Fold this protein.
Amino acid sequence: MIKQFIFILFSFIFIPLILKSQICCIKATNKLAHIKLENGLAVEWTITPETRPDVYELVIPKSTKSKVTFFTDVDSITFHVEPKRTYSFVVLLGKDSAYTKIVTRPEPAYFSKKYQSQNNNKTLVENPEVYELVNIVIALTKKGLSDSDLVNHNTKYYNDMIKYFEKFKYDKVVLRFDSILQNQWWKYFYLKMDAYAFEIKKGKIINGGVYERVNWEYVNTLQPLLSDLQEFYLRTNFSTFYNDHKILYAQQISYLQDSINIQGMKHWLSKNFPTTNYNCIKVIYSPLVYGSQSAISFQNNRFGEAQVHVNFPYTDESDIAFSEIENILRNGSVIFTELNHSYINPEAEKYLTNADFIKAFQELDFWERKDSPAKIAYRNGIKCFEEYLNWSLLSLYIVDNAPKNSQEKLISRIEYNNQEIRGFLKFKEFNQEFIRLYSQKKAEETVADLLPAIIKWCRKQTTIATKQ
């Protein structure tokens, strides 16, 4: 009787838990499905039973609910989703079961009315304290100490930094950073960019309330490291080093702000990509950054912001071969070739399903040399095409802004660097064709209007090569 009572009691406790843990099932006879969002847009989805779970990450505004419907060819399921939640279900595809999750993320940035009024129509250059803190931690890692493409080792500032912080290179946060970078070096961009979400308030590192994350994915990579970073900040008395170098930061910011015409770059890009507009441009830099730059843009509350994360263009011995105006254009090219991605990419991605584009870039070996930086970094058609456009756009900017007798000199260096060093096999031909199209365009036409023509040219080149 006691055993029977215990069994009945167990049943009352666990049956509701079992029922609660059950997830919904829908059926499919085809792997192709679609996810329909609140705004009416539909996203194509491939049902993949072998990926367990198969996750679709969805960004939705803070404090809102959104309707999301997952459609197969024979069934559907709808969720009313909120930020930072997970919604699980199973798709029965014949004898297979695809465990699927919709994971909702908050928007990466929130631009309040106050933020908009403070930043509208601004072009800002910044080196915030937490941002420089993270760059210094990166520089102290084994990866940073050995990789001169990530960290500029050839400046007085670097030597000052090493002298001040070298004794802390085995600090816990430095070792944690190094573990990340040794396994996934590209997380360098994520860590550095995500640092921009934080600020110092009363000696404590806190989120500044504008950015949830600043990298291209869905979580802030710096957040799990924050406690150790805080300890490093206090133990090293970081603010002393940062304050001692504020004059240098101010001089470098002044040069970037006033001498290389960032506002002119924005005007030129806005004119040539008229469907893309940004209310604010931010250039975020560190004296420690060298060859690894990045860019990202945000849209929130009808306010657009484009960010570039770049190095400072220190003078070097190659500057002697160029005039003052040529060096200004060369120094500005780092910012221009990052900023223009915020204009190029939205326009280029309109052609993802274009037949000429698909045919032109289905074989990347035609466009990228094997084992080259191009082949390693730009692994699909759209990324390859966007990078060709990126540096070719710099050539067009030079055509409009450099003296006639400087244009060939500057453009030939761009072509050599991209084709011979970076490994974009057809860059010179592509670049010359784009310059030709630009020089012959009608007065009312823009660079954006020329994309169909350059894509057709790309397809023609691959077609000729196939026939040979």
About this structure: Residues 1-20 have pLDDT under 50 and may be disordered. Residues 381-401 form the longest helix (21 residues).
